[in-house]
Amino acid sequence: MTATPQTRAKISAMEKVGLAIALLIAILLIGFSLFSLLIDITLKFDLYGIVTDLIFLAIGISLGYFSIRIYKKSVYYEGLVSSAFDEGVYKRLEPVLRKVAEASVKMEDLDTRLNMIDRKVQMVIDEQVKTEKSPRSEVEKAIAPGTSIGFAVKTVFLTIITMSGFLFMIYTSIGAVHFATLAFYILWWLLITSEYELFDNTTAWVIIFVPILIVPVGFMILDAFMEINNVIALFYAFLALYAFLYYSWAVYETKGTLPFNLYLGLKTRHR
Question: What is the pTM of this model?
Answer without folding.
Answer: 0.50
